[in-house]
Transgelin
Amino acid sequence: MATNRAAKSGFAAEAQRKINSKYSEELAQECLLWIQQITNAPENTSGDMDNFYDVLKDGTLLCKLVNNIQPGLVKKVNESKMAFKCMENINAFLEAARQLGVPAQETFQTVDLWERQNLNSVVICLQSLGRKAGNFGKPSIGPKEAEKNIRNFTEEQLRAGQGVISLQYGSNKGATQSGINFGNTRHM
């Protein structure tokens, strides 16, 4: 856990402060209230980092959440507080979230939650899962998902687009970027 590690210093501490500055207590509280609405837990829905971490760190509530959205997604939820078992719960949640349609770029790594490295990415993942929950008949949070806007063009419209001459877009009148030097020259 994060409490067993040495405190970060130098660049690492600066990077961690930057990551922590992106954390939004309002969004975290919205996530916890949404989880409470679906699972009837947790009792404390404060959005501060300490509470958010304490509520979610063992992964059992996250597994219960995805099983309430779609029953049977996580086959075995480990109730043990051993580090390995808790990380298994978090991994099972992440796999279930991907199956429910959360894009890979909106998920987090296990250490982001377990070692409290990046709680903002956990919030992003829960917000994304909250949008997907509406597809399964559950309450949703966050902005509404965009719908596909498929366009079908006729052959006549496609041919008309091929008749456009590129000079109709405009011209740079023969200008190039040769000779442009921004600042000092390269020394070898």
